[in-house]
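User: My collaborator sent over this chain with a note saying "see what the structure looks like." That's all I know about it. Can you take a look?
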Amino acid sequence: MPPHSLAVRLDDDQYLPPVDPVRLDVRWFDGDDYTVHYVETRSGGVWQCRWDRHPKPDEPRAHFHPPPDASDAVEASPLSGTHYLDVCFDVLDWVADRLERLHEQ
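Assistant: Without extra context I'll predict from the sequence alone. Here is the result:
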């Protein structure tokens, strides 16, 4: 049985200023549903996005709330797995890609 929640604080030293604390909050629910919330805290506010898998009328069960504000706007999720380890590793790969893009800018 997977854990029900996981809070990860990512290494701030890997990010360039003005990003300070960075966290990943993960929650799993029965039926392979989940929510994964990525948050970068910046001097001007937050930059965030969220991957969700749950029933949602008129939207795909697995969906993505894009950055910069994880608003009500919804896109199809790029995550294909439902197993909690697959979801975690896919999101951690996304975080690594995000860091690489930030350093290239």
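A starting point for your reply to your collaborator: The chain is about 20% helix and 40% strand.
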